[in-house]
Amino acid sequence: MDILRIALQVTMVITSGLMVLTILMHKGKGGGLSDMFGGGLTSSAGSSGVAERNLNRITIGIAVVWVLSISLLGLIQKFDV
């Protein structure tokens, strides 16, 4: 169980970092934190629709792996004898 726990913890750390990066890569929809860093100024030079959809899919996939790793870690901790 220790190897599985360590693997899940490593997975959680990696996916946490990837989630931060992918969320920050999204095009700003206005008025938020992305506008503070100049996202509002480059609205016409943003990513295309296909790239944004692919980024959404990647972000959702990483989020699913992140939630699964946290859930499995919780179950391991709950049933650890």
UniProtKB/TrEMBL annotation:
It comes from the Bacteria. It is found in: Cell membrane; Membrane. Keywords: Cell membrane, Membrane, Protein transport, Translocation, Transmembrane, Transmembrane helix, Transport. Pfam families: SecG (PF03840). The gene is secG. Belongs to the SecG family. It is a multi-pass membrane protein. Involved in protein export. Participates in an early event of protein translocation. It comes from Georgenia deserti. The chain crosses the membrane at residues 6-26, 58-76. Its main location: membrane. This is Protein-export membrane protein SecG.
